Structures are given as structure tokens and as C-alpha cells.
Amino acid sequence: MDNQFQVDIDEFLPLRDVVFNTLRKAILTGQLKPGERLMEVHLANRLGVSRTPIREAMRKLELEGLVVMIPRRGAEVARITEKSLKDVLEVRRALDALSVELACDRISEEDTRRLWEACKEFEKAAKGKDASVIARADVALHDIIVEATGNQRLQQLVNNLSEQMYRYRFVYIKEESRHDTLIAEHKEIYESIVERNKERAARAARIHIDNQEKAVIKQIRLENEGRLNKRL
User: Alpha helix (H) ranges present in the chain?
Assistant: First the structure.
């Protein structure tokens, strides 16, 4: 494990939570790569902590599906599989379509202004080519739409998928060739909501997810081919 990351100290959080947040961030942003072994002693030394908070963090990461335990091998970062991707995006596609439909009815003038600003912020972030910044701008944009629905249950469901979505979104956003497409898709979603056109908005939201799914599946298959070729 030669990727560089450090524990983010937060005086208001227990050490176990700080370690968990640090490792989760490293996984979601690809600093700890899919299939990479997570050895407690190495992580403890790297983060300057004992093995106890590392072990506790591993259990929580396993529950989130970000870490898997392999018999006689130990913990490793969960791979992004086509099945896991499709399962998450199948649900998110439906939630996003519902979100934009409800936003067409309920979005306020203030949230409409915020959404436009978020679109511009994403475009600005995309020009900077920092995947972490772009991903945060993308999350912020979609959060405004979900908040505009005023439906707390819907917000909870979206939040429950947020960590897995971030991981897939990060893989997608790292491809600079996709940035112009993302900007155009955000503009389409924004304009359809402003027009209060539910059908157009839902279609745009589904296309937005469909394109992400196709791109990440392509990346998964390329990585699988690469691993297979190494074995031959």
C-alpha cells in the first residue's frame, strides 16, 4: 500500500470514528484501491494508532459494503462489480426520477437560484480537473434537488445510498472526457425543472444515471481484463 493518506484528526470525534472516516474516504476516492489488502498492523503504523480502532473501523466498513473479509487472507477493499453497481443505480435511478418530478412541483425560487449556481460551480470545478472537487460539486448539486422535494423520507433513502454512489461517481468523474457530457446533463435537468416539465426532467435524470452506469461498467470490464491478462 503505497498510496498516501493521513488520519484526519477531529477533537470532537472518538478515535475509532476518526479512523473509520479516514479509511472510508481513502476507499471512496480510490486511494485504497479495489482488491487491495488491508493489513491491520500496516494501517495502524501508517495512521499512528493502535490496532483496536483499525479493527473497529473494518467492521463498520464491512457493514457498508466497502470492505470484504476473505478467509485465510483477511480484509480487502471490496471490488466494484457490475452486480453491485447495477443494484445501487437501479434504486438511485428511480429515486432521482422521483426527486426531479417532485422538484418540478415544489422547488422554490431560492432553491432554483441555488441549483443554477450549483450548475455553474460544477462547470467551474470540472475545468479544474480535481476529481475530489468535481465529485463534491456534483453531490452538492443533486442534494439541492432532493432537498427541494421537501420529502424527508426521500432524503433519507438517498442519503443511505450516498456512500456507494460517491464511489461509483468518483470512478466516472475521473474520466475527463465525460465532463462536458455531465455539464450538459446538469443543464438539461435544471432547465426541465425550471419549466416544471416532469416528463422531461425524469427522462433527463434517468439518462444521467444510465450514462454513468455504462461508463463504469466499461471501466470494470477493462480492469477485469487487465487482471486476467496478468495471470496469463
Answer: 15-28, 40-47, 51-63, 82-106, 109-128, 131-148, 152-173, 179-194, 198-231
pLDDT above 70 as % of the chain = 94
- Give the whole-angstrom CA distance, residue 205 versus residue 188: 9
Amino acid found at 204: A
pLDDT at residue 1, as a whole number:
45
**Plot region of 161 (φ>0 → left; ψ -120 to 50 → alpha; else → beta):** alpha
Tell me the C-alpha distance between 68 and 51, whole Å.
18
Only one residue has cell 437560484, namely 113
Residue 185 near residue 211, CB atoms below 8 Å: yes
The predicted pLDDT at position 7 comes to: 66
Q: How far apart are CA 31 and CA 12, in angstroms?
A: 25
Distance from the Cα of residue 56 to its chain's centroid: 23
pLDDT tens digit string along 133-184? 999 999 999 999 999 999 999 999 999 888 778 888 888 888 888 899 999 9
